[in-house]
Specification:
There is one protein chain. The chain has about 100 residues and is an all-alpha fold. The chain is about 20% helix and about 0% strand.
Length: about 100
Amino acid sequence: MVAQPLSQMSQKLFKLLGSAVVREHDALGRDVELFRRHLYRTDKVGPTVKGHEGAELVEGLEIHEEDYKLVKTRMSAFFATPLHSVLQTSGIDSLVIVG
């Protein structure tokens, strides 16, 4: 028996239980808190910035059109996002945090 990669198993689990949350950051740091702005100098781009190799989803993990996608721009996915309302409206009371 060949085991499936964890990303594929996780994706199937999320399909059964709900959708994944995806994190992205503005490459120029315009959405970053003041105390972290120094990390986003124009000559320094981090590995998890949208459009860079380190920010790509792992092979086998895909976002489908019907999935809910949240652009997380702060340390907390609940700050300045509709995540709390989406979870309550959907009746979701538990989260699995990975990554």
